[in-house]
Amino acid sequence: MIESQDHLFEEPKRSVLPTLLAGVAALLITGVVFAGYTLVRKRHADSGLALNAPAPTAETKPPQALIVVDEALLKNGQTTLGGVVRNTSNGKLENLAVELELKRRKDGGIDTQLVPLNPTTLEPQQEGRYVLQLKAQDYSSAHLSGLKSGASKTDLAFTTTAGQKRPLERLEPKTIIVNRPSKGGEFLNSPDNPARVP
């Protein structure tokens, strides 16, 4: 009655086909998800570029002037902003003014100011200078925002470049004399009693 138990411990033979089909299905699903992700990402990037791109214009105007912007000069509580405008076009530019945006210190608001050139009319390759003086405590920064021409103050195309640097500030040497005696009764080194300090 004792039968052989060997057949109880044998594993049944499995087919390789279901495992192979499961692997292929997993790879196929991963590929579809990756392709969809790539497509959505590309569409999002294209829509972002379309929103940030400037509106197409019929023609781009070449610059008609070169503005040389000097560094701001601070002296005696006054800020001096200035520079030079050169007419780089072939025609005459009339009634010129530089537009500056000034940032207020107290509330951070922006003031716009038109600064006329001297002279206000420029022939080709001629230069005109602009200068604006402000109280240093009123404004924290200035930005060149435009070049206006004519009575209607139409915008002109321009390019900018850096101009004169601010001169280095000189600190005058100061001699401080203290007329109060030390605890010992007298200073070791004073103008009246100079001594060499080792």
What does it look like?
By secondary structure, this protein is an alpha+beta fold. Among the domains are: 32 residues; 98 residues, Immunoglobulin-like. It is built from 1 helix and 9 strands. The strands form 2 sheets. Strands 1, 2, 3, 6 and 9 form a 5-stranded mixed beta sheet that branches. The protein has a 4-stranded antiparallel beta sheet with strand order 5-4-7-8, with no helix packed on it. Strand 2 and strand 3 form a beta hairpin. The longest helix has 36 residues. The model has no long low-confidence stretch (mean pLDDT 80).
What's the CATH topology label of the domain at 65-162? Immunoglobulin-like
% residues in beta strands? 25-35%
Structural class determined from secondary elements: alpha+beta
The shape is: flat
Biggest pleated sheet: 5 strands, mixed
Portion in helices: 10-25%
Q: What's the CATH class of the domain at 65-162, please?
A: Mainly Beta
Radius of gyration: 39 Å
Q: What is the element string, with H for helices and E for strands? A: HEEEEEEEEE
- The count of DSSP E runs of length 2 or more, i.e. the number of strands, is 9
Question: Average pLDDT across residues?
Answer: 80
